[in-house]
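Q: Here's a chain of 286 amino acids. Please give me its 3D structure as tokens.
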Amino acid sequence: MEEELVGLMGVTLAAVFWSVSPAMISMVMRGTERNSLYANAIRNAAALPVLGITAYVAGFKAIFTPISIGLLLATTLIGPGLGDYVYTEAIRLTGASLATPIGYLYILVAQLIAWRMGEHATLRLFLGGVLAIIGVWLVSEAWSHGGEASLRGVILAGVSALSWGVSTVIMKLLLSYMGVVELVFYRVLILAPLLYALYKATGSSEPVDLRGILILGFSGILTYGAGLPLFTFAIKIVGVGYSVLPTALTPVLTQLTAAYMAGERLSSYRVVGSIITVAGIIVGVS
């Protein structure tokens, strides 16, 4: 029980780290023609030294077989590859407050897939997931975009939800072959050069923007270097279904932090949505 509590505390801390990332991406990408492949290459590259040092200290113990290599490539290309790319595009097209609640439908996707694959799940867990998503939607006030919302951005956010859900379940299978930090390190090691190569293949040329590079790099360290290892550790300890639920705090904290730090309006919808999200997490994990 104590180990499970540590796992849930870890993923909750990950949610705190991740809550900063959408706003940072939006600061650099929103309303621009910046290349999302380039942006995510920077984010992965920035986290690589942090993860490499941590993995070296923890020790490399991975067992490489055709199955483990296939799982590693699958979770990498589907989740932080396709999922993060289309999510970044969705933020660029619609903004973080709309892309985030749609993307976080991955919670229900992951829970359902894990349940179908034999992971123990309860009605309270699924109910908690539904409540958390409703809360996230209220906090984000996604309906307020009206005609400004890009249909393509909404669809891409939905693709990110499917990609993250599938990738998360694959991560659990892969933990039978390698350690927590190793898994995250190898994913980033594959993605950083791959995304940059794909960016160069598009023929695009991004202007040198030191401020943008620093912001994207720091968001990558928070997302991949700090948050993702904590999330992966939780998956190993308590399973997929219970690990994904506390991550619903991410969009809630993103909105509340923006209201506090940037002076954005804190409406009654956001307050009620925050309460419902927290209630959903409590219902699901209790």
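Q: Can you summarize the key feature?
A: Residues 8 and 234 are 6 Å apart (CA to CA).
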